[in-house]
Specification:
Blueprint lengths: L3 E2 L1 H7 L16 H9 L6 E11 L5 E14 L4 E10 L7 E5 L7 E6 L4 E4 L16 H4 L2 E2 L3 E11 L2 E10 L7 E9 L5 E8 L5 E7 L4 E3 L2 E3 L2 E6 L5 E6 L1 E2 L2 E2 L1 E3 L10 H6 L2
Antiparallel strand pairs: 1-8, 2-3, 2-17, 2-20, 3-4, 4-5, 5-6, 6-7, 9-10, 10-11, 11-12, 12-13, 13-16, 14-15, 16-17, 18-19
Length: 272
């Protein structure tokens, strides 16, 4: 069985998915750290209401509201289906995005745009495009095979009051990836990435940063993150993604029953 790694996609598709681990902090290498990140218990399914604020370099904010469902469909191969529905603003209401993870090959992605009235498949050549005007790309949402990268433990240090491992990941086949490398700050207690640096494929310079902007709290036995920010360091544009409240309570659920039909192209097009 090939192992999948979903560091960035976890933060966008299912921000609140950060599983609970009880592991003794011992001398381990970069590969093992990333395997522990991947091995977290994330539940059989997840559901959340989320805000997505697009913030330009002047600080002007364009708020969006979206809802996310995610369900594990193959436990042995660790494969998930995910769907996002945008509720606000009215200009993008009922835009829907579906992703199905595959074993040993790229995930399948489709988007339904109400103005066009049809489902469009996201091609490999569109992987570097912005996802709905955010600082996340379609490739950022995809899972990756752990074996496709070389890992190096660079150091151990404190970051935002968390003791972390700092791990570099370099793709074995650079032509197939959008970043020259990533560097992740992984908490020793939870094995959660609290900061990720992404380096430009051409210039090799630091290009984007993703940072967790909330405390890590345990909800229903699962360590939970409520907010993360992705920043494009070239443009100064940021995307703040966070769990929202409904009826004065944060709407995030684990291990809920989700109809399989929700992850179909029929639902993608009709919403039912």
């Amino acid at each position: 069985m090939k192992k999948k790694i979903k560091i960035i996609s976890i933060c966008l598709m299912t921000l609140f998915i950060v599983g609970s681990l009880n592991m003794t902090a011992v001398a381990i290498d970069g590969r093992e750290i990333m395997e522990r990140v991947d091995n977290r218990d994330t539940g059989d399914s997840r559901h959340a209401l989320m805000g997505m604020d697009l913030i330009d370099a002047n600080g002007d904010v364009r708020p969006r509201v979206l809802e996310v469902w995610s369900q594990k469909v193959d436990f042995e191969k660790d494969l998930n289906h995910n769907i996002i529905i945008f509720h606000e603003p009215s200009s993008i209401k009922n835009t829907r995005f579906l992703q199905k993870e595959n074993d040993g090959e790229d995930d399948d992605q489709w988007i339904y745009l109400p103005d066009l009235g049809r489902v469009r498949r996201i091609s490999g050549g569109q992987g570097g495009d912005s996802f709905m005007g955010s600082d996340f790309t379609y490739d950022d949402l995809k899972s990756r095979e752990i074996d496709d990268f070389e890992y190096k433990l660079l150091k151990e240090e404190e970051y935002n009051d968390y003791e972390t491992y700092v791990v570099e990941a370099i793709p074995k086949n650079p032509a197939e990836e959008q970043y020259a490398k990533t560097i992740s700050w992984i908490t020793k207690e939870h094995y959660i990435p609290v900061k990720i640096e992404m380096y430009d494929k051409d210039s090799k310079e630091l290009y984007k940063e993703m940072k967790i902007k909330s405390d890590i709290e345990k909800i229903d036995g699962i360590w939970t993150v409520f907010s993360t920010v992705m920043e494009n360091l070239d443009s100064g544009h940021k995307t703040n993604l966070y769990v929202k409240k409904r009826d004065n309570n944060y709407l995030l659920e684990y291990n809920v029953e989700i109809n399989d039909k929700r992850f179909s192209q029929q639902f993608l097009k009709t919403g039912r």
